[in-house]
Design brief:
- The protein is built from seven helices and eight strands, in the order βαααβββαβαββααβ.
- It is α+β, with helices and mostly antiparallel strands and 189 residues long.
- A hairpin with a 5-residue loop joins β2 and β3.
- Strands 1-2-3-4-5-7-6-8 form an eight-stranded mixed beta sheet, with helices on both faces.
- It has helices at residues 8-16, 18-23, 32-41, 85-95, 116-128, 158-173, 175-181; strands at 2-5, 44-50, 56-65, 68-76, 102-108, 132-140, 143-150, 182-186.
- The model has no long low-confidence stretch (mean pLDDT 94).
- The protein has one domain (2-186): Gcn5-related N-acetyltransferase (GNAT) (Aminopeptidase).
- The protein is globular, with a radius of gyration of 16 Å.
- It comes from Ruthenibacterium intestinale.
Protein backbone atom coordinates (compact mmCIF):
# COMPACT_ATOMS: atom_id res chain seq x y z
CA UNK A 1 0.00 0.00 0.00
CA UNK A 2 1.27 3.43 -0.97
CA UNK A 3 0.39 6.08 1.65
CA UNK A 4 0.53 9.73 0.69
CA UNK A 5 -0.99 13.08 1.52
CA UNK A 6 -4.07 13.73 -0.56
CA UNK A 7 -4.56 16.83 -2.64
CA UNK A 8 -7.73 18.78 -1.82
CA UNK A 9 -9.31 17.32 -4.98
CA UNK A 10 -8.45 13.73 -3.96
CA UNK A 11 -9.80 14.39 -0.46
CA UNK A 12 -13.00 15.82 -1.95
CA UNK A 13 -13.43 12.77 -4.18
CA UNK A 14 -13.03 10.49 -1.13
CA UNK A 15 -15.44 12.68 0.85
CA UNK A 16 -18.08 12.44 -1.90
CA UNK A 17 -17.66 8.70 -2.49
CA UNK A 18 -20.65 6.51 -1.64
CA UNK A 19 -18.50 4.58 0.83
CA UNK A 20 -17.68 7.74 2.81
CA UNK A 21 -21.30 8.86 2.81
CA UNK A 22 -22.41 5.41 4.04
CA UNK A 23 -19.65 5.17 6.68
CA UNK A 24 -20.37 8.58 8.16
CA UNK A 25 -24.02 9.60 8.54
CA UNK A 26 -24.95 13.22 7.75
CA UNK A 27 -24.75 14.24 11.42
CA UNK A 28 -21.09 13.09 11.50
CA UNK A 29 -19.97 14.72 8.23
CA UNK A 30 -18.83 18.28 8.46
CA UNK A 31 -19.51 20.36 5.36
CA UNK A 32 -16.81 20.12 2.70
CA UNK A 33 -16.45 23.91 2.62
CA UNK A 34 -15.43 23.76 6.30
CA UNK A 35 -12.83 21.05 5.61
CA UNK A 36 -11.49 22.94 2.58
CA UNK A 37 -11.21 26.14 4.60
CA UNK A 38 -9.19 24.29 7.26
CA UNK A 39 -6.97 22.71 4.59
CA UNK A 40 -6.26 26.15 3.14
CA UNK A 41 -5.40 27.44 6.63
CA UNK A 42 -2.95 24.56 7.14
CA UNK A 43 -5.06 23.17 9.98
CA UNK A 44 -6.33 20.04 8.23
CA UNK A 45 -4.58 17.24 6.37
CA UNK A 46 -5.86 14.15 4.56
CA UNK A 47 -4.00 10.93 3.73
CA UNK A 48 -4.90 8.10 1.41
CA UNK A 49 -3.71 4.54 1.11
CA UNK A 50 -3.58 3.43 -2.53
CA UNK A 51 -2.94 0.17 -4.36
CA UNK A 52 -0.45 -0.15 -7.24
CA UNK A 53 -3.08 1.03 -9.75
CA UNK A 54 -3.80 4.18 -7.73
CA UNK A 55 -7.16 3.00 -6.39
CA UNK A 56 -8.05 4.42 -2.98
CA UNK A 57 -8.18 1.69 -0.33
CA UNK A 58 -8.25 3.74 2.89
CA UNK A 59 -8.30 7.37 3.95
CA UNK A 60 -7.80 9.41 7.10
CA UNK A 61 -8.57 13.07 7.74
CA UNK A 62 -6.95 15.03 10.60
CA UNK A 63 -7.35 18.45 12.14
CA UNK A 64 -4.14 20.02 13.47
CA UNK A 65 -3.41 22.42 16.30
CA UNK A 66 0.33 22.95 16.60
CA UNK A 67 1.98 19.58 17.28
CA UNK A 68 -1.27 17.69 18.01
CA UNK A 69 -3.59 16.05 15.50
CA UNK A 70 -7.17 14.91 16.00
CA UNK A 71 -8.22 12.02 13.79
CA UNK A 72 -11.46 13.32 12.30
CA UNK A 73 -12.20 10.39 9.95
CA UNK A 74 -10.65 6.99 9.28
CA UNK A 75 -12.18 4.71 6.67
CA UNK A 76 -11.40 1.59 4.69
CA UNK A 77 -13.34 1.19 1.46
CA UNK A 78 -16.09 -1.43 1.97
CA UNK A 79 -14.73 -3.88 -0.62
CA UNK A 80 -11.38 -3.84 1.21
CA UNK A 81 -12.62 -4.42 4.77
CA UNK A 82 -11.73 -7.47 6.89
CA UNK A 83 -8.42 -7.89 5.06
CA UNK A 84 -6.19 -6.05 7.54
CA UNK A 85 -5.80 -3.01 5.29
CA UNK A 86 -7.11 -0.56 7.91
CA UNK A 87 -4.43 -1.72 10.35
CA UNK A 88 -1.76 -1.67 7.63
CA UNK A 89 -2.76 1.87 6.62
CA UNK A 90 -2.81 3.13 10.21
CA UNK A 91 0.61 1.57 10.93
CA UNK A 92 2.08 3.20 7.80
CA UNK A 93 0.72 6.57 8.97
CA UNK A 94 2.16 6.10 12.47
CA UNK A 95 5.54 4.95 11.19
CA UNK A 96 5.65 7.52 8.39
CA UNK A 97 4.18 11.04 8.45
CA UNK A 98 3.06 10.82 12.10
CA UNK A 99 6.15 9.12 13.55
CA UNK A 100 7.09 12.31 15.40
CA UNK A 101 3.56 13.62 15.91
CA UNK A 102 0.88 13.15 18.55
CA UNK A 103 -2.57 11.96 17.57
CA UNK A 104 -5.76 11.89 19.60
CA UNK A 105 -8.96 10.22 18.52
CA UNK A 106 -12.50 9.64 19.70
CA UNK A 107 -14.29 6.35 20.19
CA UNK A 108 -17.91 6.36 21.26
CA UNK A 109 -18.22 5.27 24.88
CA UNK A 110 -20.00 1.93 25.39
CA UNK A 111 -23.24 2.74 27.19
CA UNK A 112 -25.07 -0.59 27.45
CA UNK A 113 -26.93 0.00 24.19
CA UNK A 114 -27.27 -1.89 20.93
CA UNK A 115 -24.08 -0.36 19.48
CA UNK A 116 -21.80 -1.52 22.31
CA UNK A 117 -20.28 -4.46 20.44
CA UNK A 118 -19.25 -2.19 17.55
CA UNK A 119 -17.87 0.43 19.97
CA UNK A 120 -15.80 -2.22 21.78
CA UNK A 121 -14.47 -3.55 18.46
CA UNK A 122 -13.44 -0.03 17.44
CA UNK A 123 -11.66 0.49 20.74
CA UNK A 124 -9.89 -2.88 20.39
CA UNK A 125 -8.84 -1.97 16.82
CA UNK A 126 -7.09 1.18 18.00
CA UNK A 127 -5.48 -0.55 20.96
CA UNK A 128 -4.10 -3.27 18.64
CA UNK A 129 -2.68 -0.48 16.53
CA UNK A 130 -0.66 1.24 19.28
CA UNK A 131 -3.21 3.74 20.56
CA UNK A 132 -3.96 3.83 24.26
CA UNK A 133 -7.00 4.91 26.19
CA UNK A 134 -6.53 8.10 28.14
CA UNK A 135 -8.34 9.38 31.20
CA UNK A 136 -10.01 12.07 29.09
CA UNK A 137 -13.56 12.02 27.78
CA UNK A 138 -15.51 14.39 25.60
CA UNK A 139 -19.09 15.15 24.77
CA UNK A 140 -19.49 16.54 21.29
CA UNK A 141 -22.88 17.38 19.81
CA UNK A 142 -24.58 14.98 22.20
CA UNK A 143 -22.19 12.03 21.75
CA UNK A 144 -20.01 10.75 24.61
CA UNK A 145 -16.46 9.76 23.57
CA UNK A 146 -13.48 8.07 25.14
CA UNK A 147 -10.28 9.73 24.03
CA UNK A 148 -7.49 7.56 22.65
CA UNK A 149 -3.96 8.72 21.91
CA UNK A 150 -0.79 7.87 20.05
CA UNK A 151 2.69 9.19 20.89
CA UNK A 152 1.84 11.79 23.52
CA UNK A 153 4.79 13.93 24.65
CA UNK A 154 6.46 12.72 27.83
CA UNK A 155 4.80 14.25 30.85
CA UNK A 156 1.44 14.87 29.19
CA UNK A 157 -1.14 14.41 31.91
CA UNK A 158 -4.91 14.21 31.50
CA UNK A 159 -5.40 17.89 32.36
CA UNK A 160 -3.01 19.09 29.66
CA UNK A 161 -4.43 16.58 27.18
CA UNK A 162 -7.94 17.85 27.92
CA UNK A 163 -6.76 21.42 27.25
CA UNK A 164 -5.10 20.36 23.98
CA UNK A 165 -8.25 18.50 22.89
CA UNK A 166 -10.34 21.60 23.60
CA UNK A 167 -7.92 23.58 21.43
CA UNK A 168 -8.34 21.05 18.60
CA UNK A 169 -12.13 21.23 18.85
CA UNK A 170 -11.94 25.03 18.79
CA UNK A 171 -9.90 24.92 15.57
CA UNK A 172 -12.38 22.45 14.12
CA UNK A 173 -15.70 24.13 14.94
CA UNK A 174 -14.89 27.58 16.32
CA UNK A 175 -15.05 29.09 19.80
CA UNK A 176 -18.78 29.79 19.88
CA UNK A 177 -19.85 26.29 18.81
CA UNK A 178 -17.21 24.74 21.03
CA UNK A 179 -18.58 26.59 24.06
CA UNK A 180 -22.11 25.45 23.25
CA UNK A 181 -21.63 21.88 21.99
CA UNK A 182 -18.41 20.52 23.50
CA UNK A 183 -17.47 19.34 26.98
CA UNK A 184 -14.06 17.86 27.77
CA UNK A 185 -13.23 16.35 31.15
CA UNK A 186 -10.97 13.96 33.01
CA UNK A 187 -12.71 10.67 33.71
CA UNK A 188 -12.51 9.93 37.46
CA UNK A 189 -12.96 6.17 36.81
Amino acid sequence: MNVREMTPRQAYEAYCADAFVQAFPPAERRPWRSILSLIRMGAYVCYGGYDEQGTLLCCAFFVRAQEFYLMDYLMTMPAQRSRGLGSCFLQKLLDGPFAQRSIVGEVETPDGGAEDELRRRRLAFYERNRFCQTGVRSWLYGVDYRIIAWNLPVGTDDASLAAKLTQLYTVLIGEERCAQWVRVWQDPA
